[in-house]
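Dear colleague,

Thank you for sharing your sequence with our group. We've completed the structure prediction you requested, and as agreed, I am returning the results in plain text so they can be pasted directly into your records. Please verify that the sequence below matches your submission; if there's any discrepancy, let me know and we will rerun it promptly.
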Amino acid sequence: MKSTIHQFLNDRRGNFGILSSLLLPVLLGAAGLAVDVSSMMLAKQDAQNYADGAALAASSALADDDIGESAAKLLAGDFLKAQGTALAGTTPTIMVQTTPGANNSKTFTVDVSFNQTISLSPLMSIFGKKTATIAINSRSVSNRGASNSLSMFLVLDRSGSMQTSTTTVKSTTVACHYYYMPNTSTVKDGGSKTPCYYQRIEGLKLAADTLFATFASVDPNLNLIRTGAVSYNSGKQTESQLAWGWSAADNYIDALTPTGGTSSTGAFKVALDALTATTEDAAHKNKNGLAPKKAIVFMTDGENSASSDDTSTLTHCATAKSKGITVYTVAFSASDQGKNLLSKCATSSATFFYADSASELTAAFKSIGQVAATGLPRLTQ
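Please find the predicted structure tokens below.
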């Protein structure tokens, strides 16, 4: 008898089947969980993109088109409805808040939220789960009018290569001289021909005009924005000092002529010193009672003649960023070395621009003006 009991207790036959029957629901549930987690992540990403798009569309319209809060809510709702079955069954909550600021400025906050129910795979029914709910929240903020004061200094390349023609047509009927640089450091006159193309220096002047037009729309009374400008070629040129408005800087840029080599260090240092001077903060405090945002716009169409200039300029860039100055950089048909310098100098990838034509340069300067003076609509969560 003892032998029979002992044999029974030591018999391992059938254990695999027992363990399998116990583990099978767990294994199936784990497989279902893996499938559903992946599906839920994709669904959440898509739904979040829809919510972000709706919030951005509404906040952009509030800032640019001067629509009311009710119209903004309808706009966001219509954006979500346009997604069709992707958001079927959801009931979005859309909230819009307008906050008045200094000098008649306004800040708009748009919140979009909803819960989306996702069907789970049949494997999850083992755990009694057929659906799951994901929560979506998005917030976009935009501004109309200058919400803060601003001091901006432009650091601009006026070296000989700025005489080179761009690919942007100036006139199809009036002939003009065009210039090119075929693997040489010398700008050569290509003669008077049509179509006539903008030179890089002309493209720069047009871009600056667009920047200042943006400022004019948000600071018509000239009590929020101060600008200065300095150019460089083989060395720094005499600057246009920081002053209220932009007319002095605009006149300075309009008078630039291209000549010489390229050395950016001294000009960047001029901008850095001017923006960090205690007198600059005092000027804003006395005028509008605000602490100014500060920015440098650093542009080149080539590269420094000496690599040591790259090193010293980057040192000044680092100092500017450490002091809270936003550094916008614009590489205008620049070489790889020039692009590398400006990419490293910029505050972030969002403040580095590459332009290959006069029209692209103008677009870059317009974007910089919008962000610096008012702030483009942005997602905050």
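Summary note from our side: The CA atoms of residues 70 and 273 lie 47 Å apart.

Kind regards,
the structure core
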